[in-house]
Amino acid sequence: VQGLLAGKRGLILGVANNRSIAWGIAKAAADAGAELALTYQGDALRKRVEPLAQQLGGQVVGHCDVTDPSTLDAVFAEVERLWGRLDFVVHAIAFSDKSELDGRYLDTSEANFNKTMNVSCYSLTAVAQRAEKLMSDGGSILTLTYYGAEKVMPHYNVMGVAKAALEASVRYLAVDLGRQNIRVNAISAGPIKTLAASGIGDFRYILKWNEYNSPLKRVVTIDEVGQSALYLLSDMGRAVTGEVHHVDSGYHVVGMKAVDAPDI
Ligand code: NAD
């Protein structure tokens, strides 16, 4: 992959720490020669993200909280000031109130439904609006989704509904931006133990279930998601847009529990 992203400049939104999927993608992109800009959400994460960005020879371009559009404006203004243009954006942002990632979807509150949709779904469109202006030479926008968008997964609840809307947004954005050669895709990653995932009820059980029942009989890593992302971010994927690509050890093709799966 050396040189695959040489000369490309990418903005990565959603690194919280060294277990973040966005960090796996950032490492792979840097290894492939990309120049990177990272954001952090709030001062508590700043001190984690700054050394990580440095490790990759990248920049930190500010605080980004997608519920405050002025922070997105500031981040894109800083990218424009630095580079004048942009080749790719990684959107790895999601949030829902932890108390509603357990129990029944039926009990979702209106306030948390709106917040989850805003942060986990609308924010991709908000990012794409700003990225369009800087992708004068075409570009690639990548978001992260999960199988809970397609099928009901225990405890995923309102996040599953938001991911379904996110995947639909990928398709609509792909059409709107296609003429400008800006591609929009998603990776549907298998479960990985990250900060965000720790909010989901019975997550350890979900990990084990995927390990025992996926075709590859294991869970995936952030580095594997990162390497798959290279295809979509680079010119290797130049004819691919509107796609939801599963990086999940093949779990999404399985119809029932494996007959030889141990009890969990
Ligand atoms: P993570 O906790 O490392 O990353 C989530 C990020 O979202 C954090 O950096 C956080 O700062 C950011 N974020 C939350 N609210 C925000 C807001 N209002 N403004 C700006 N940023 C905000 O966890 P992760 O698992 O790496 O999550 C990244 C993406 O991957 C999410 O979209 C998640 O749904 C998706 N995903 C995760 C898994 C998994 O099992 N971990 C599987 C499939 C998809």
From TrEMBL:
Q: What reaction does this catalyse?
A: a 2,3-saturated acyl-[ACP] + NAD(+) = a (2E)-enoyl-[ACP] + NADH + H(+)
Q: Name one GO biological process term.
A: fatty acid biosynthetic process
Active site annotation, chain numbering: 146, 156
Where, in this chain's numbering, is NAD(+) bound? 14, 20-21, 41, 65-66, 93, 163, 192-196
Membrane-spanning residues: none
A Gene Ontology molecular function term of the record: enoyl-[acyl-carrier-protein] reductase (NADH) activity
User: To which pathway does this protein belong?
Assistant: Lipid metabolism; fatty acid biosynthesis
The alphabetized UniProt keywords are: Fatty acid biosynthesis, Fatty acid metabolism, Lipid biosynthesis, Lipid metabolism, NAD, Oxidoreductase
UniProt EC number:
1.3.1.9
Q: What class of enzyme is it?
A: oxidoreductase
SUPFAM superfamilies registered for this protein in UniProt: NAD(P)-binding Rossmann-fold domains
| Pfam families cross-referenced by the UniProt entry | adh_short_C2
Report the family membership.
Answer: Belongs to the short-chain dehydrogenases/reductases (SDR) family. FabI subfamily.
Q: From the Swiss-Prot or TrEMBL record, give the protein name.
A: Enoyl-[acyl-carrier-protein] reductase [NADH]
Which lineage do the record's taxonomy fields give for this organism?
Bacteria, Pseudomonadati, Pseudomonadota, Alphaproteobacteria, Hyphomicrobiales
